[in-house]
Amino acid sequence: MTIRVDPSQLETGIPHTKILVAGLACTLVCLYLADLNAVTGTKYFSVFGGLAFVAAVIWGSDTVKTLQSYGLAVGHPSAGIIAVAAGLLPVVLASRFGPVAAPLVAIIIAAITGVIIAFVANYVLMMKIPVMLSALTELSVLGACMLMGLAAAVTGGYTWNDLTTGAGGSTVAGSFLGGGLVVLAFILAALAISHPWNATSGGPGWKQDRMLMLGAECGFLSLIIAAILSFAFTGAVPGLVTLAVAVCGWLWSYGRYIAMSKRDAAAWLDTKPIPETKEV
């Protein structure tokens, strides 16, 4: 299968390269701010892990759009699944390198994973999509960033100790990895990154700012669930801080998205309906 699309038609609004740079920078800064938990011996900075997750979702929604604009109509959900699946192993492997090196190691391993997956897709499955290499590499990195962000939001960090220490200091069976919370994080991340382009791509009047705002709304909505889970790991006060930020962020982004939807819908109010044919 070969798909040919003029790439110039895919770039509207803010160029994807700028979104990539800004999204990666914001995600890394927030992940390292979450490391202040280890420095201060508290869990109050866990909220920055959640903000790293939201930044990655906003960035990733445009990445999914870049890939899916090549006509993969049934690929919207699969893009989110493959992103998080490709990012899971890098997160686990990088967790052994400590809080400072872990994000960078995870990004490097995830990028290599994405290149391998893209090579198989283009040259074994013969999909031959021009942006496959860059998009899947980026999606793999995004998957790793989203999972690290959610792990930090829930447990207070993303090192091996954080991922395997159970709630309240219990055994590994009650931990982020052993207790199966990573599965819930997988679903939250995959849905959040897949939905914005899937929900805004149909019909006329697509606008990039509306899609990115929906990405923020999906990110904060997933963060609300992560914040509720964090009470068992980080304690009541840090959990309330994360929950408050998540709820406020969701209310703001949802309100902005509805306003943008009304704006774009109003632009089509003067469209006349298709006239019905009458038999003579």
Can you offer a commentary on this structure?
The protein has one domain (27-265). 71% of the residues lie in helices and 0% in strands. The longest helix has 31 residues, at 236-266. The model is unreliable at 1-10 (pLDDT under 50). The N and C termini lie far apart (47 Å). Helix 6 crosses helix 8. The protein has 10 helices and no strands. It has 280 residues and is mainly alpha-helical.
Largest sheet: none
- Find the structural class using helix and strand composition: mainly alpha
- Rg, nearest Å: 20 Å
DSSP summary: helix tally = 10
Model regions low in confidence, pLDDT < 50 over at least 5 residues: 1-10
Tell how many strands the DSSP assignment holds.
0
The tally of structural domains comes to 1
Distance between the termini: 47 Å
| Integer average pLDDT | 86
- Note the overall shape: globular
Written as H for each helix and E for each strand, in order along the chain, the element string is: HHHHHHHHHH
| Helicity level | over 70%
Please describe the topology of this protein.
Elements: H1 16-34, H2 36-40, H3 47-68, H4 76-94, H5 98-123, H6 132-155, H7 160-164, H8 181-200, H9 208-234, H10 236-266
Helix pairs in contact: 1-3, 1-6, 3-6, 3-8, 3-9, 4-5, 4-6, 4-8, 5-6, 6-8, 6-9, 8-9, 9-10
Summarize the structure.
With 280 residues, the chain is mainly alpha-helical. Helix content is 71%, strand content 0%. The protein has one domain (27-265).
Which characteristics define this entry?
280 residues, mainly alpha, 10 helices, globular, disordered N terminus
